[in-house]
Design brief:
Order of helices and strands: HHHEEEEEEEEEHHHEEEEEEEHHEHEHE
Shape: elongated
Structural class: alpha+beta
Number of helices: 10
Helix content: 25-40%
Radius of gyration: 31 Å
Distance between the termini: 62 Å
Number of domains: 3
Number of strands: 19
Length: 388
């Protein structure tokens, strides 16, 4: 018979006072011992140690699941000894090396047992996690409310952080390493791991891809529906072109000999004239002039290697070669059907999170026979969106 350990923030140590905690020590300490102020401070310190120990236990219990895993460790309070030898005068204050793993702190207090605010974040001090510095507006060694000590011929001034967050790399150390996915600890990283993990373990669904792209573009989903207009993930399975699409962007990675292309090709949702030259057929495509030449040269080379011209293929599909073709519609109907998903978005909308690794993240969960293309939407006025 096994029992499951369940912890919550109603644990008694989170609400007990230092006086109540000292009372648990017995009559000698509460009634007969001298120097009650010293004992109050001592019991407050013991209580703090117990509370921080509970925080560690609480983190360990929550790390059993990615759903409940904490992003940061958040102790009740923690003291720092700022060394005089490490203080540097900088423009706008006095800088110290950032304490190990510290990400943010609401304020610094004079002692662990008192709540007197001496330094308030973004007012009296600032944290730069990139430069790994902690900068105070005023010299903390001139503050008489702070305790100073001497250690190894160096002078230290002590501050106590309240509502602080420490990055112990919980997310990567417990879950990210399995996926070989390294990112800075954040709520977005936690959500990313959850999406990738669910797709890898349970199999990719359209919802997994929708959630991943919504995270990357910072789009909120309500009941699995995007909350902004003209942003969606479209399935090409039926071969029909969504009327909201203005143009489909095809990157070189989707084309034969990708290294031969300078930039993307754009297939627009509009009718263009079909040019027939003997057995060769072509039409307007938007892109770099050299890329367009390369595209049609590749089509001609493929005609030779397969023994079927594009003109013959169109005649078999359509019955005859039409005078005009919609490039985007043709692409969806005859090439992307059952092979691709399309991200529909405004042309000026760019990734917010994990943009530099967007392609590799999408590739992790997409089936190997499926690709993802980006399509610009038609603007609110009905005119084509600006080119990316």
């Amino acid at each position: 018979m096994y029992s499951t350990l369940t912890l919550n923030n109603d644990f008694p140590l989170n609400t007990i006072t230092s006086e109540q905690f000292r009372a648990l020590s017995g009559d000698f300490w509460t009634e007969t011992a001298p120097q009650q102020s010293f004992l109050d401070a001592l019991s407050a310190g013991e209580l703090l140690l117990a509370q921080n120990a509970f925080k560690n236990l609480y983190d360990a219990a929550d790390l059993k699941s990615l759903i409940t895993a904490p992003v940061y460790h958040q102790p009740e309070t923690k003291g720092f000894g700022l060394k005089l030898s490490e203080m540097t005068a900088v423009t706008g204050g006095f800088s110290f090396p950032l304490p190990e793993n510290l990400v943010s702190v609401e304020y610094f207090a004079t002692s662990p047992s008192e709540s007197d605010v001496v330094y308030l974040t973004d007012v009296d001090f600032s944290i730069d996690t990139t430069a790994e510095t902690l900068t105070f507006v005023e010299n903390p060694f001139t503050n008489t409310n702070l305790t100073q000590t001497t250690q190894d011929d160096d002078t230290l001034v002590w501050v106590w952080c309240v509502d602080a967050k420490f990055d112990r790399n919980y997310l990567y150390n417990y879950y990210g390493f399995v996926l070989n996915l390294v990112q800075e600890s954040s709520e977005e990283y936690k959500e990313l791991l959850t999406i990738i993990w669910n797709a890898v373990v349970g199999g990719t669904s359209r919802l997994d891809i929708l959630k991943l792209l919504a995270l990357i573009y910072d789009v909120t989903l309500e009941n699995e529906i995007p909350t902004i207009d003209n942003w969606d993930v479209l399935d090409c399975a039926d071969g029909n072109l969504d009327s909201r699409i203005d143009s489909i962007i095809v990157p070189p990675s989707f084309l034969s000999m990708p290294s031969a292309y300078i930039d993307n090709l754009v297939f627009e949702n509009k009718l263009v004239d079909v040019v027939v030259n003997g057995t060769e057929v072509s039409w307007e495509i938007t892109g770099e002039p050299d890329d367009i030449v390369q595209f049609w040269e590749t089509v001609r080379a493929n005609e030779v290697s397969t023994g079927v011209t594009l003109l013959e293929a169109i005649e078999s599909w359509e019955g005859s070669v039409p005078a005009q073709i919609n490039p985007a519609e043709f692409l969806v109907r005859y090439f992307l059907r059952n092979n691709a998903l399309i991200l529909l978005k405004p042309a000026d909308m760019v990734p917010v999170n994990f943009g530099s690794i967007m392609n590799s993240l999408v590739r992790r969960i997409l089936p190997p026979w499926t690709g993802l293309l980006v399509a610009n939407c038609v603007s609110a006025e009905g005119s084509p969106s600006p080119r990316p």
